Amino acid sequence: MIASSPRDGSQGSLWRLEPGAKQAQPLTPPAGRLDGLAALPDGTLLFTDWISGGLYALEPSGQRRWLAGRFQGPADFALIPQGGGFLLVLPDLVSGELHFLTLEP
Asked: Which CATH number is 2-103 given?
């Protein structure tokens, strides 16, 4: 998976590059100024967007779902297995805050 954020300030997209493929395929239309990206075991992709200040999930069905927001500068994040789900640790680079979110299975 690749999260793109063009240098010209336009919105980036999520892309998939299969092993052996010569070209990446887009998974989303332009989705924001993307930073963090992680894949969950069920194929859901999590990503952050600086424009909306949000954390999103892209379901395997292609549906985009808002998980959390009102961040000023959501950056790359860590996923820590916890029980059957995950603890997501998300730094907000603008506010200097560190957010802890629980993701249930």
From this structure: 2.120.10.30
pTM of the model: 0.88
SS3 65: strand
Tokens of 42: 């069920």
**AA letter at 58:** L
Q: What is the DSSP string of 21-37?
A: -SS-EESSS--BSEEEE
The pLDDT tens digits for 70-95 are 999 999 999 999 999 999 999 999 99
What is the C-alpha to C-alpha distance for residues 76 and 90, in angstroms, rounded to an integer?
7
Q: Contact 93/85 with Cβ under 8 angstroms?
A: no
Spans of all domains in the chain: 2-103
